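User: I'm preparing a small set of examples for a lab meeting where we compare how different chains pack in three dimensions. I only have the primary sequence for this one, and I'd like the structure in token form so I can line it up with the others. Please keep the answer compact; I'll paste it straight into my notes.
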Amino acid sequence: MLEFANKINNNKMNKSDVFFTPFKGEKYEEGICGKKVLVIGASFYCNRTDCKYYNDCTDTKKKDSSQYDKQCPYNDGQPLSAEPSLAVEWDLRTYINFADSIKDFCGTSRDEIWQYVAFTNYVQYMLGANSNYRPTYKSDLTERDYRAFNETLISLKPDIVIIWGCVINSRLKEQNEYIVGKNRLEETDYYVCEIKLPQMNKKVTIINPYHPSINTYWTPNVEEFKEYLKIELNK
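Assistant: Understood. Below is the structure token output for the 235-residue chain.
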């Protein structure tokens, strides 16, 4: 059964920056090899250009879909903020590729792997698309997304965060003020680093593979990602 992670309630903040409620698998606390793993994708997008809310909901200047959270007519009665929990049930190449890459670490099937992890996307609003695919651009990102990422870490307390792709990664690795031991990036071909948030009593390992939707990069490099993941899981 799918479970939603609780919305973060930080009394030091007037308002949570998290819009998309992270999916939290039933065995997330058990983890993979005893490690809690959070998976961060890039973005959710909508190609329903005929929707009366489309232009405002996906406005790249406004960058805020929260007004339409419970008004989307195309989301099968689910709020937009529930997208992470809906996404892990999609039979899409992105999720299939990723699940196949980590299923052996749990000794489980492709479909069951999501119960061992938490998942959300980095960008905290719906991106508009005129086709069935819409890449994420640097211009789509804001500091709100970064704050939401940190809130999610504080809430879910992962040991390892797997970040998909080469668009959202800079703010979370090289430009992250909470990074410790920055030399690890160079030692691991920029796959691995660690961060330590003031609100957390432990370091969090970040592993950054290519985005699993892009086979031309994902497929030739997936074994390298798996090797680094294996090292971190076995620590």
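A couple of notes for your slides: Residues 3-7+14-45+81-233 form a domain with the Uracil-DNA Glycosylase, subunit E fold (CATH 3.40.470.10). The two ends are 30 Å apart (CA to CA).

User: Perfect, thanks.
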